[in-house]
Specification:
This protein is of the alpha/beta class. Helices cover 42% and strands 14% of the residues. The protein has 4 domains: 145 residues, DNA polymerase beta, N-terminal domain-like (DNA polymerase, domain 1, Orthogonal Bundle), CATH 1.10.150; 89 residues, Beta Polymerase, domain 2 (2-Layer Sandwich); 64 residues, Beta Polymerase, domain 3 (2-Layer Sandwich); 237 residues, Metal-dependent hydrolases (TIM Barrel, Alpha-Beta Barrel). The N and C termini lie far apart (62 Å).
């Protein structure tokens, strides 16, 4: 049994318990176990056979016993007992975007919704909007999800950060093989998309047979479905499909370009090439006039033969990059090394897991010149709020810090209330060096009101940046309803920065909105939203989003020293 199948069984058990209304800690325990199992890089089944499964974080004796039962019988006894009294169709209802176990249970209790068919019928009849906590927008979202084909099945895409953890491990091991000449990750992972359907690895090898054998014997690989000297297809223990392609070194550039994609980019590239009498494939470029077909060792040579600049992978989405490359007008994209400071992070004062000093020291080790400590504010609503008096004490602690080589700024991530005001009074905000304003409550506010709420917050003279402006969680929570064009226009008008939140679960603003903001003249900030010292490294996902948005270093505020950034703020004008 693959890790993904075991994890899915525990996700189902957690949902069943939540539908049954048990204490929350038990639900959390099973979800944490499912996460650890899904993300394990080796076979959890084999670990269980060896009596080592409790080595996984969040897996204790009780859960280990359930894993053993699942492997032996194909089911978890506790889940079977719950299924005997909970309608089986409710699990599918919990997986519809915007619902989940709590809301599914509410629908079951109020409208007798016990299946997707029941849900569709209730939504089409307009009965969902009258359920407490729903409303017309929630009903519309359910209908949209069902119309788009949502069927309650587990999602088949993998968050980029989780896919890269596997892909980078595989590529690193393959590069160490004695026959490796060139090895690269391709596909949507190389383009730094939000999530991936599978992994593509392209390689050149002096001994393809030995190289494929090494790939198949990797600890991350569960099953190899097909293999030969041209490559292999396999599935990891997490259930992620992996395609390995091998070509001679002299054709590596063609293969890498083709399998990096995207499909729309490649289609447009091939269509334009045909008009010039050229035919592009993963094997080379054929010339109608000469009859020659030439292969290229590098992507730069491929694009040069087609009369254009090399196109960075992040831009290959057919959004104008080919025209810009032909004209030599591709921007100099922002790089991770351009970032001088991180202006959104949390400590143990709210929901972080390290002290101010630990976060600042970790940032200094990354080469940053400054950081802003931005713990959650007084109405965050999750039991980890920083009340005004405590915030002022934190300001004093920050002012008293003596850390060489880095400037520590006293800040906050203040909640934007329904009327657009902040949940700290101005005399408190005036004591701070940096203010991030974010929506953390009332996500289901109608679009007009939500947009006005955000725009009113940007009118505040002390608000430096809007944090994760659309509130999305990739594959988990849709953006709240907001008129992003009006928000962008207000950011330009007020001189408010908009954030690209680098948390790989968020990446918010997304690349499309960030590109629109940059083109409109908004100055952006890219922040890690780190809650641990090691998650400061999430900055790379924010920079990747910035690159996908065609942003240059000049368009991002925190590529500057603090003294220069400070002059850009509305409060300094």
């Amino acid at each position: 049994m693959r890790n993904g199948e075991i994890a899915e069984a525990f996700e189902e058990l957690a949902s069943l318990y939540e539908l049954d209304g048990v204490v929350v800690y038990r639900v959390v325990a099973y979800r944490n176990a499912a996460k650890a199992i899904r993300e394990a890089g080796v076979s959890v089944e084999e670990m269980a056979r060896q009596g080592r499964v409790e080595e996984l974080s969040g897996v204790g004796k009780t859960i280990a016993e359930k894993i053993d039962a699942l492997l032996e019988t194909g089911s978890i006894p506790a889940a079977e007992k719950l299924k005997a009294r909970i309608p089986s169709g409710l699990i599918a209802v919990t997986r519809i975007p915007g619902l989940g176990p709590k809301r599914a249970r509410l629908l079951y209790e109020t409208l007798d919704v016990a299946s997707l068919d029941n849900l569709r019928e209730a939504a089409e009849q307009g009965r969902l909007k009258d359920v407490p906590g729903f409303g017309a927008k929630a009903e519309e979202n359910v209908l949209t999800a069902l119309a788009a084909g949502a069927d309650g099945s587990p999602k088949t895409r993998t968050l980029l950060s989780k896919a890269l953890a596997i892909g980078e491990e595989l590529v690193g091991a393959l590069r160490d093989h004695s026959s490796a000449l060139k090895v690269e990750l391709a596909g949507s992972a190389r383009r730094w998309g939000d999530d991936v359907k599978d992994l593509d690895i392209v390689a050149a090898s002096s001994d393809p047979a030995a190289f494929v054998e090494a790939f198949g014997s990797s600890p991350a690989i569960d099953v190899v479905h097909s293999s030969g000297e041209a490559g292999a297809r396999a599935v990891t223990h997490t259930g992620l499909p992996v395609d390995l392609r091998i070509v001679p070194e002299e054709a590596f550039g063609n293969l890498l370009q083709h399998f990096t994609g995207s499909g729309k980019h490649n289609e447009a590239l091939r269509t334009a090439a045909v008009k010039r009498g050229l035919h592009v494939s993963e094997y080379g470029i054929a010339d109608d006039e000469s009859g020659d077909s030439l292969a290229y060792a590098t992507e730069e040579e491929v694009y040069e033969r087609l009369g254009m600049q090399w196109v960075p992978p992040e831009l290959r989405e057919n959004r104008g990059e080919l025209e810009a490359a032909r004209a030599g007008r591709l921007p100099q994209l922002i790089e991770l090394d351009d970032i001088r400071g991180d202006l959104h992070m949390h400590t143990t004062a709210s929901d972080g897991h390290a002290s101010i000093e630990e976060m600042a020291e970790a940032a200094r080790e990354r080469g940053y010149q400054y950081v802003a400590i931005t713990d959650h504010s007084a109405s965050h609503g999750f039991g980890d709020d920083v009340q005004p008096d405590e915030l002022l004490r934190q300001v004093e602690r920050i002012r008293a810090l003596e850390l060489e080589g880095i400037t520590v700024l006293a800040g906050t991530e203040s909640n934007i209330l329904l009327d657009g005001s902040l949940d700290y009074e101005d005399p408190v905000l005036e004591q701070l060096d940096w203010v991030v304003a974010s929506v953390h409550t009332s996500f289901r506010t109608p679009e007009k009101e939500q947009t006005e709420r955000m725009m009113n917050a940007m009118e505040h003279p002390l608000v430096d940046a809007i944090g994760h402006p659309t509130g999305r969680l990739i594959e988990r929570r849709a953006p709240y309803a907001i008129d992003i064009d009006r928000v962008i226009a207000k950011a330009v008008e007020t001189g408010t920065f908009l954030e690209i939140n680098a948390n790989p679960d968020r990446r918010d603003l997304n690349d499309v909105y960030a590109k629109a903001a940059g083109e409109a003249g908004v100055t952006l900030v890219i922040d890690s939203d780190a809650h641990w010292p090691h998650t400061l490294a999430n900055m790379r996902y924010g920079v990747a989003t910035g690159r996908r948005a065609w942003l240059t270093a000049e368009q991002v505020a925190n590529t500057r020293p603090w003294a220069e950034l400070d002059k850009l703020r509305k409060r300094s004008r």
